[in-house]
Amino acid sequence: MTRPIARIAFLGTHLPRQCGIATFTTDLSAAIGAEFPGIDRIVLAMNDPGQRHAYPPQVRFELPENDSDAYLRAADFLNVNTVDVLSVQHEYGIFGGKAGSHLLTMLRALRTPIVSTLHTVLGEPNDNQQRVMAQLATLSDRLVVMSEHGAALLRDRYAVPEAKIDLIPHGSPEVPPTAEAKERLGVDGRPVLLTFGLLSPDKGIEYVLDALPAILERFPDTVYIVLGATHPHVKERHGEDYRLSLESRSRELGVDANVIFHNRFVSAEELTDFLAAADICLTPYLQPEQITSGALAYAVGAGKAVISTPYRYASELLADGRGVLVPWRDAPALASAVMDLLADDDARRNLGLRAAAFGHGMHWPSVAQAYLASFERARAGHAEEKRTRIITPTLAGRPAGLPDLNLSHLRHLTDDTGVLQHARYSVPRYEDGYCLDDNARALLLMASVEDSGTDERATVSALAGRYLAFVSHAFDRDSGRFRNFMSFGRAWTEAHGSEDSHGRALWALGAVVGRSDTPGTRSLAGDLFHVALPAVLDFASPRAWAYTLIGIDHYLDAFRGDRSVETVRSLLAERLLELHQRTSGPDWCWFEDCVTYCNARLSEALLVSGARMQRQSMLDAGLASLAWLLSVQRSPEGHFAPIGSNGFLERGAATAQFDQQPVEAAGVVSACLAAHRSTGDVAWLGRARWAFDWFLGRNDLRVSLYDPSTGGCRDGLHADRANENQGAESTLSFLQALLDMRAAQLAVVATHP
Questions:
Q1: Residue 107 shares a structural domain with residue 204
Q2: Are residues 525 and 654 in the same domain?
Q3: How confident is the model at residue 504 (pLDDT cuts 50, 70, 90)?
Q4: At CA 653, angle to CA 596 and CA 590, rounded to 5?
Q5: What's the pLDDT at 747?
Q6: C-alpha distances out from residue 241 to 200, 285, 331, 463, 606, Å
Q7: Domain that holds residue 296
Q8: Could you tell me if residue 1 is inside a domain?
Q9: Beta strand pairing status for 649-650 and 594-595?
């Protein structure tokens, strides 16, 4: 006989962090503790970037959302502490990585049964959201949803078996009616309308304000209470714009004397008072697909008359006469519904009674019992082999052996203009000035950092803005070309730069469009991308074609179907393929008669283009050329040895062994990862790690190119020593390769069931 559950872990946000999931996690844990006092409860709390909170003692572990290593430490913590079941509160936005994919890293490393409560189930997910939800469903023993619509989406959209789904309502507190509540809030004897929860522009509160003049004309003593602080993520991006617009609107409508804004995140006890005082609760939300709402659940559980817009959760919860639904963005309809209920005490009371009867099963004691039953089912059906991690000889599921991302030296090389080209040791060389090449590389890196998640959002945003400003200033709209070199005195030293620098700028701009979530940054990058793209069609440099193709691939992540961009991609990819077919032979599988610099980018461009265009000939050429390139860059001892820049590799001649450049290793890492994505062959992951280890000392001189004391990378390997200068190209090459490796290792965990 299975022993009773003795210890439950909860993963999610937790009070005092201000968000709806935090309230839910806190309440669920407390409810289970109250119903089952013999069960030990521990909480693993997700921290938003740069924040720490004064958690209660039951919070035993904190995870910074963008720290990928923390998820694996958390898994180890749970495995060591013999937890019987993990209750995951899932919302895409509270976990790091693309669509919260860092969570999957943790779940795959667990030996514990997993029950995931889905606070959002999207009917139209993007590719990353679809992938994360599919893996979450595979890794979880049970999935909990709070509505029939959510269960239907899991079955129909995500192919989750019915037997794996538990429908458990959102919990709500019991709110005893108290005559003193209005008196305590200073609204004694007045009709009270209430909207509560964290404020954001999708709450639709402005339509209630628009309805108030008509309501007050008939019921002049009515007071509308808007209870809740602005959502922290909204406040971070937009400040208090929404709240201030509501306050301004109420003044313009002349209803401000009847509107009370409580700009606070209230405790459960305070919320009970506000609910007790309310005559009508309003949820005029604007998102049709919203499948849960803690505020609506609380209002129904409290037996309140509710008026709502018909979003999914409201349509389900307020069916059968348990509430009133009004059309979207319709202030007159809101006003009419409110006045009908205020004018008819019996109708309002009966509406509340029907809600209370249904809401009785939503009270936390009942919900706690339903969750424990779900946890027991998870334990009974738990299969250890479902969570066996994918381990390859060279790439394990956890990102072990990779340095932390350190931007210190990059910041040191960056001034108000952009990133300086060179350094003497780790000291910037002003006399060499700036170049577009390195500022484009830096912009690409910032897009990658933002995409992977960071606790240094403000720093990354500031750096990205500086590098994008440099790239923008480098573009000459009259000629349609970028300039490359700028003196320290901010004077351009050429009319236009090389074709390669132009292609590299397009690569970075495409990455910003495809990866950044900052609207202004994306808009400027998109504008520059489009006006600079046509010039490439007249270029002769294969590397300029390749950089542009890689940038186009990033751009199409955001705007798949842009026919003008797809046309350019087709033309350039065909040129590159034709070049390979014309030049390569039995013993020389390459694009040119000399293997020179940034070589692997040529193969990578064919791989990403062939994969997106579904052109097998391009994929085959990309894979064959990359495999050949790796074969001529393998030392007799078996480690990676990039072709030296002192002579390169001429067809029919010997390979130059030195100087070996970091940019070559970074290119091979990226190309091998592209090969893995296009083929699914895990051997390419091992080859990527093989090339990356060159930075860390697995090279001809057995010295590390990466300097952890500065965060910089040495400028290459000479025959007798490492080049101790730490310039921008080398440092950016290392940092980009590091990010690529970390993302790839996490993706292995996220995408293999």
A1: no
A2: yes
A3: very high
A4: 45
A5: 63
A6: 10, 18, 21, 25, 46
A7: 180-362
A8: no
A9: antiparallel
